[in-house]
Amino acid sequence: MKSVLGVDIGGTKIAVGPVSSGGEQLAPSLFALSRTNSLEAFVSGLEQVLREAVRQFQAYAPAALGVACAGTVDHDRGVVVTSPNLPLQDFPLAQVLEEKLGLPVFLENDANAALVGEAAAGAAVGMRHVVMLTLGTGVGGALFLEGKLYRGTSGAAGELGHMTVVRGGLTCRCGARGCLEMYASGPALVRYAAAYMRDSERDPGGELLGLYEQGKLTGGAVARLAREGHRGAVEAVEQLGTWLGVGLMNITNIFEPQMIVVGGGVGELGEMLLRPARAYLRQYALPPGRDQVQVVAAKLGNGAGLVGGALVAWEGLESSACHDGVIPPAR
Questions:
Q1: pLDDT in tens, 1-19
Q2: What is this structure's pTM?
Q3: Closest by alpha carbon to 125, among 306, 292, 265, 308?
Q4: Domains plus CATH for the chain?
């Protein structure tokens, strides 16, 4: 069975898996940590992961790589223009990986790829006006307008995590102050929870403090405690959800979409996160957008970027085949 390897590169981890031309992931993902201390370490680590993935998934005959990368991406040139959470600046990632692995590589922004996945095989099937936010180490955004992905003039459209929500607020890794990313990301969730770790009412068993002292107070740990009903963790998620609502309000007022899809690792909190976000949206966004927009969790979960990256590669392969005078096989 022929496949494309979808590759989702985030600020902390890399996921790789084989995907069919119809958007079905054919095997469980291979995971590894992103090495972000230097460009050389990042590229070396990524190459190792991808070589292992090609070997591990050889039964699925990988024909190309579809790479979804966090940051501003020039899809046509295969270049990562900048990435606040990765050591990449005007870096020709597609070309470098092609030379190292000997396979065609198609590069896309991670949020764009996630939205492609959701539009093709997830929560947004059949929708023509969709916006996506991916909440993880950072906050990514993507626009699906008039039934197609909108990339902007040079591929940089959709950086919704860097809309200013607090004038003169916290300094973001992008250099600006008060970006949504500083208030609705995984690190923000940890910051909200940490504020309660010496509050006996919100952290009665000292679990937050204990995790902090062990260096294990992460977004995943806070999410786990919130699901278990830990008061401080639940309030941290609600605080994050309200800030997410600020972003949703702005998106609704500007684009009036049919649907906003929330994905990424933090997005997997589901209704616990979306409930306060919707409440803020319904209260402060303008009609008619606020009354008709659907706010849903990504159906493909944290795997949307991987699937979408692969679908971008499938599209690229078919386009190349057509340009070469070859009729591609039907999906």
A1: 799 999 999 888 999 999 9
A2: 0.85
A3: 308
A4: 3-115+303-323 (3.30.420.40), 125-298 (3.30.420.40)
